Amino acid sequence: MNQYVTGAVIKELREKNKLTQRELAEKLGVSDKTVSKWETGKGYPDITLLEPIAAAFRVSVTELISGNTIQNANVSANMLRSKFYVCPVCGNVIHSMGEADIHCHGVSLSPCEVEPTDENHKIFIERVEDEYYVRIDHSMTKEHYISFMAAASSDEMKVVKLYPEGGAEARFKIRGVKRIFFYCNRDGLFSIDPVKGIDDKEVGYDNVKERRELEKTADKLFG
Ligand SMILES: [Fe+2]
Description:
Elements: H1 7-16, H2 21-28, H3 32-39, H4 50-57, H5 61-66, E1 83-86, E2 93-96, E3 102-104, E4 107-109, E5 114-116, E6 122-128, E7 131-137, E8 146-152, E9 157-161, E10 169-173, E11 179-184, E12 188-192, H6 194-204, H7 208-222
Parallel strand pairs: 5-12
Antiparallel strand pairs: 1-2, 3-4, 6-7, 7-10, 8-9, 8-11, 11-12
Helix pairs in contact: 2-3
Fe (ii) ion is lined by residues 120-121, 138, 144, 184, 186-187.
């Protein structure tokens, strides 16, 4: 990227927009000689003129400075490939449909790597009418807790924020949901595909105590 708009870029964009030097000068309230100076590298437009110049060429200031016209490709939005960025300082959760430069509290955040659920982060998913009742078998102390859960279909994402001392549980409408994510403040991001997960759980479910607890919670929640 250039540090500043160049004469070549101004000339190119002016010609693309079929403007004469005089026409551009009139739009900007400068003389055509000034425009000519910019284009021949004998001077730079004042910074206060960048926005009016960009507007005259119907580009953004960023495009003007970089010299590249950017086509908004409308980033592909398959929610199953969503990225989550979590600030280690404040716990802020940022969901993105593609890669992005994200900073929070002065920290440059990388997208969380997703791992399959493990022994210490077991997920229990139960169908209750048209919802998934999801519970994570995990501590919820201030030091170590599940900070959010999310359910994604190919074009939707529902995020539920969780808090220490609260329950590591959430409910999601089943329709379309193909992946469930949850985030442990110490161990990171996990995901499971619920249909497959529930089938896998048939094996996990011979843990009678877990099952009873889950049923108790489900009773409490759904009567
Ligand atoms: Fe954990």
